[in-house]
Write a structure and sequence with these properties.
5-stranded antiparallel β-sheet, 5 strands, alpha+beta, HIT family, subunit A
Length: about 130
Amino acid sequence: MVPCPFCSITPDRIWIETEHAIAFADSQPVADGHLIVAPRRHVSTIHALTIVEQKAIWDLVAQVREQLLTGLKPESLAIGFSDGLAPVQTDLHAHVHVVPRRAGDPPEPRDGIQWLAHDTLGWPKG
């Protein structure tokens, strides 16, 4: 069995961490500053987390958002997640993508967060 890539994040990829959640650089970023926020506990859906853990995820997403807005100064952010494996979630560890968006990026929603897996996996769009 292949180890979970989110359970074995190397310290150099960690951006922010809390008791229940961790934010780190995406290994295949679709934009400069693309981060992932994941629970420390290995679950396949955010809905399997306790209310305290869910709140920790969204609190960390808010903290990541603020730091990206002040540091990278993107025009906007795409924030999203898939619930369950099929058809686009490739890792069985719940997580939220936070992607800085800038002028010239593909327009939402067809080429936005929901299409990241299509780009990564080479699936046809349409």
